[in-house]
Amino acid sequence: MATYTPMMQQYLKIKAEYEDAFLFFRLGDFYEMFFEDAVNASQELEITLTSRDGGSSERIPMCGVPYHSAPNYIEQLIQKGYKVAICEQTEDPKQAKGVVRREVVQLITPGTVMEGKGVSEKENNFLVSVTVLEDGFGFAVADVTTGENSVTKTERFDEVLNEIYSLGAKEAVIESTMAEDFQKQMRDRCGVAVSYENEDSVEGEALSLLHPISSPDLKRSFARLFHYMIRTQKRSLEHLQEVQQYELSSFLKMDLYSKRNLELTETIRSTGKKGSLLWLLDETKTAMGGRLLKQWMDRPLIDRRKIEERLEMTEVLLQKFFEREDIREGLKEVYDLERLAGRVAYGNVNARDLIQLKKSLQRIPSLTELVKALEHPFAEKLAEKMDPCESLEELLEASLVEQPPISVKEGNMMKDGYNSQLDQYRDAGRNGKTWIAELEASERERTGIRSLKVGYNRVFGYYIEITRANLHLLPEGTYERKQTLTNAERFITPDLKEKEALILEAEDNMSQLEYELFLGLREQVREFIPRLQSLAKCISELDVLQCFAAVSDKRRYTRPVFSDGEMDITGGRHPVVEKVLQTQEYVPNDCRMGNEMERSILLITGPNMSGKSTYMRQVALTAILAQIGCFVPAEKAVLPVFDQIFTRIGAADDLISGQSTFMVEMLEARNAIVHATGKSLILFDEIGRGTSTYDGMALAQAMIEYIHNHIGAKTLFSTHYHELTVLDQALKSLSNVHVRAVERNGRVVFLHKIAEGPADKSYGIHVAELAELPAELIQRAQEILEKLEKQPKPSQENAPEPPAAVHDEEAQLSFFAEGNPRKKRKQDAGDHSLKSALLELNLLEMTPLEAMNKLFELQKKAR
Ligand SMILES: Nc1ncnc2c1ncn2[C@@H]1O[C@H](COP(=O)(O)OP(=O)(O)OP(=O)(O)O)[C@@H](O)[C@H]1O
């Protein structure tokens, strides 16, 4: 250390405290990085790596960014999951004896970033903490941008992962001793940055925020998060709200796979919103409403009374079209009050933000009137809570001009009459300027030079300018010569300089005083933070409810009715597929399940691509929409209140955990089977297809039996195993339904219509033909199929007898007989090796993936 210069020693000392962050070390107009930070940052940010002498024998790697463009670079690093420590000069370099004092003023981390692209308008930026307890996990959540805080306790670690996933948290704060496996799962499965905080004492400010919480364990969990926020942000965070406790059991539970599978807030293929249920629903007009909508979607309710309250408001808003339209217009003008409150607490609002705040507050009285005009007790209750913060609005109206500049240091923010000292400075400035304006006129008169003018520049201040052509008209010695230009001379006079000094002093004083007045104003606004936050809650709630009404109206949704177990959906639709289908109409489908009809399991058969998954998802989405308080896409819907929804749909490969698709399938199935209750909804889409036919079929049947005999959850089970359709004889709550398809002119036509009973055949080969596999191959597959169908099926212990399915062979044959020119072209090719390769395949022992690979190989040969 001793060999480094004092400044490098200072750097190394500070860096030692922030080893896991990039240290942005302020040097004049730049933030510099050194050593490894410099090497890494130059790669991540694509900036030039240089070096400097630091006292030791070797040169020190260095790179830097100008301070004014730093936010952009910081954002890039944060988005990549890094942390950035901002180290500023905390004394005036002119006053410093020796090395300028420097301190880290803020540690920016993925979960504490306040602004920039990483903070999306309609999404919270949640930071969470996880504390291992004797009997579970303490889980705390905060959003530093809005000040929301909450805590809960979970029994199992997978619930912690679910919470992290559904909150979309970017960073998790934990004790450094937490088991490595837990840390790994958080990083790998949820993609969060993990940070450490061992301090969890409940005292001081943390204590006052924790007022509503009684459990010491939960208090500790939040305290850990709180200490981390204070340690990194290095300021008092007055906008943090009282901590709310929530119970996972008060909401409809869905694991992270189910949320992903159902594409609630993002689609499976990409993390974008487009195509998700949130994308369809989001007709909110404010950023706050957008965030609340996402929160409601992540946590559908199970308390019938609360659901009905939301539905009631949705209905009122839906019926009162004109009031709703006016409310929507009004909401458009309401600024993000929650984040504004956060920025007030952070000390980084400007006068323009406060003008926006004023304009938002001015909308509140009329919005409140509109809510009252809905004439409903619930609306009345909401209207009463809407606090217009009149005194704040009056204060802002009295203090700030309508169009202040962005900078708070250049003056021109405050209104005349707000402060008498400011008014005096302004008068002095204005008088000086009037005097100068008059000077121009009087000097023109006196000298007779019409083009004489008074000007100003930063270097010479005010001057009198006379063109060279007119110089002869000016008696020698009239003014003092100051500057010679090509075509003109510039002069000054003692009087002019005296006025100039007065004007400049007044302007300096004005800017300084305005800045101070602005800080004072900001302090006054700070007092209103809690009131603004509760107003924000009302506004966001109103916004989400109007959004439900608007979507329900536009898409012809109906109000669901809740039952004690029965489900009866008439004319149900998949909300997103219905919206995106362009060329064809969505075919509505019914779904009847329930205690009385003894249908708790529906076994769905039907060709590929016919709409089985869509149907299953549609039922789940209908239940979710109902339980968040929105109307549902159906003609009529009677629904139970579900406690949990489990799905196993599609190949949600968990590549990161290194598990095979089949293993993931089994883990998800286990999750449902272990945790589901009689009030749950289970969607199993072709369970068992990832293994060999017999294995898969046996597992599928065993699962159905288990659910039927031990759980009683409402279950939609789609399968390709037609053999399973006979299960309805043994299992009294199981019913067969199928998606209808017909053949027309040798082509399979999907009707997308659900009908009672099992499907009569699978059409798999027809779909393969639609996918344009070579005709010869298709024909061969058809022959094999026929052979297989004639073979007696191997018997299986306890397995159902193969169904007496009727196969319309004539129809199948006619499909290939005519009207298929490709068949004729290729028929003569007679590639025997291809044929024998096909014949050698033992289809019954192959997994679909193996079959697919083999087909691919054969297809290549056939070309
Ligand atoms: N009710 C419907 N009305 C109109 N089109 C529909 C309907 N249901 C599904 N579709 C269309 O059919 C396509 C296939 O649906 P889906 O993926 O649900 O089939 P599937 O039977 O689950 O297929 P696979 O067994 O191959 O997974 C959808 O993308 C959609 O465009």
From TrEMBL:
GO terms for cellular component: cytosol. Pfam families: MutS_I (PF01624), MutS_II (PF05188), MutS_III (PF05192), MutS_IV (PF05190), MutS_V (PF00488). One of its GO terms (molecular function) is mismatched DNA binding. GO terms for biological process: mismatch repair. Residues 789-831 are annotated as: Disordered. Gene3D superfamilies: 1.10.1420.10, DNA repair protein MutS, domain I, MutS, connector domain, P-loop containing nucleotide triphosphate hydrolases. CDD domains: ABC_MutS1. Residues 680-696 form the DNA mismatch repair proteins mutS family domain. It comes from the Bacteria. Keywords: ATP-binding, DNA damage, DNA repair, DNA-binding, Nucleotide-binding. InterPro entries: DNA_mismatch_repair_MutS, DNA_mismatch_repair_MutS-lik_N, DNA_mismatch_repair_MutS/MSH, DNA_mismatch_repair_MutS_C, DNA_mismatch_repair_MutS_clamp, DNA_mismatch_repair_MutS_core, DNA_mismatch_repair_MutS_N, DNA_mismatch_repair_MutS_sf. ATP binds at residues 606-613. Belongs to the DNA mismatch repair MutS family. NCBIfam families: mutS1 (TIGR01070), PRK05399.1 (NF003810). This protein is involved in the repair of mismatches in DNA. It is possible that it carries out the mismatch recognition step. This protein has a weak ATPase activity. This is DNA mismatch repair protein MutS. It comes from Metabacillus mangrovi.
